[in-house]
Amino acid sequence: MAAEEKFSPQTWPVSPEQATLEGKNKFLGFWFFLGGETVLFASLFATYLALKDSVPSPDHALAKDLFELPLVFLMTMLLLTSSLTSVFAMYHMKNYNFKKMQTWLFITVVLGLAFLACEIYEFNHYYHEFGHTFTSSAFGSAFYMLVGFHGGHVVFGLAWIIALMIRNAKRGLNLYNAPKFYLASLYWHFIDVVWVFIFTVVYLMGMVG
Amino acid sequence: MANLQSNSGDPKVNYEYRRKKSADEMRMQVITFTLMIFFTVLAFAAVGAGFSKWFIIPFVLLLACVQVAFQLYYFMHMSHKGHEAPQLFMWSGIFVAFLTILTFLTIIWW
Predict the structure, then answer these.
(1) Nearest-5° angle of CA A136, CA A79, CA B32?
(2) Is pTM beyond 0.95 here?
(3) What is the pLDDT of residues A73-128, one digit of tens each?
(4) pLDDT by residue (tens digit) across A166-189?
(5) DSSP codes, chain A
(6) Nearest to A42 among B19, B33, B96 (CB)
(7) Are the Cβ atoms of A35 and B92 closer than 8 angstroms?
(8) Residues 168-207, chain A: which have Cβ within 8 Å of B?
(9) pLDDT at residue number B13
(10) Total domain count for chain A?
(11) CA separation for the pair A61, A131 (Å, rounded)
(12) Residue A196 and residue B71: Cβ atoms within 8 Å?
């Protein structure tokens, strides 16, 4: 099947993301990358766990002084819902419905931006209220490294999805761009996977000491 | 490549069969999502209710693992055919991740 071939919903293949050799290679390569990302985030989690609440003097804020569950709960809901909306987008991709796919990707992006806004507010709040910064303590370094690296992934994922939406706005779906949309959605799900461990290990376990 | 097409030579039948298959899968994913929301609420409620930390920590970690398994196997389709290589990559990654965290936690033990 040629990458530029025109399709209809009836002729669109079952797994369009793997219908070409290029698509198969990207699929395999991207999962390999995600395996590596797992290890990378594990090293940041390990560092955070080892340095949690390590502060130079007792006047520094500790995890349980900093965190506020309602904000973290809101952020979790935003990211979890955006994961579902990107599932919807891929459902329409597999049904060869370009417009609906774009709509759901747009909703995913909006939810992702809302998550990012909450995170910016959160970091700003820690800085102004508690003087909790990247250099204020080992705890601060490990915290911002882990949570900030996840936030960086959110920024990258958003930029990726927006770029794909704009680049292919007039092109519609074909076997050349279907793997690209599919992998961007995998990346977005992986961001949510990491967040599940962040809200559990950093925030929930941080609250109970 | 996962080949889920029916054996019918009629493309129309084939098409309807595929539509139905993906609609069924979609319903599964909405159920998965509902469960994930439920687990999240449970985890936050356990902390909010102020149980002992020896209950909360294993409880929220277990819920996180279940949620991540849902995310990987349903949302990221790792339960589908043709995902043997992704399983190998992810499970190897998880194994090294586990070792890394174990090392860092034991190195500060005393």
Answers:
(1) 135
(2) no
(3) 999 999 999 999 999 999 999 999 999 999 999 999 999 999 999 999 999 999 99
(4) 999 999 999 999 999 999 999 999
(5) --TT----TTTS-SSGGGSSHHHHHHHHHHHHHHHHHHHHHHHHHHHHHHHTT--SSTTSPPHHHH--HHHHHHHHHHHHHHHHHHHHHHHHHHTT-HHHHHHHHHHHHHHHHHHHHHHHHHHHHIIIII---TTT-HHHHHHHHHHHHHHHHHHHHHHHHHHHHHHTTTT---TTTHHHHHHHHHHHHHHHHHHHHIIIIIIIHHHT-
(6) B96
(7) yes
(8) 186, 189-190, 192-193, 196-197, 199-201, 204-205, 207
(9) 67
(10) 1
(11) 8
(12) yes
ipTM above 0.90, yes or no: no
Q: Which residues of B touch A50 (CB under 8 A)?
A: 104-105, 107-108
Q: What is the reported pLDDT for A7?
A: 87
User: Per the domain annotation, does A6 fall within a domain?
Assistant: no
The CATH number that applies at residue A148 is 1.20.120.80
Where do the domains of chain B lie? 1-79, 81-110
Domain boundaries, position A111: 16-52+62-207
Which positions in chain A touch B60 (Cβ < 8 Å)? 200, 204-205
Tell whether A72 is covered by a domain. Answer: yes
Interface probe, candidates B71, B87, B91, chain A, greatest A C-beta count within 10 A: B71
> Quick check: is A1 in a domain?
no
Quote the minimal CA–CA distance from B54 to chain A in Å: 9
Residue A21 resides in a domain: yes
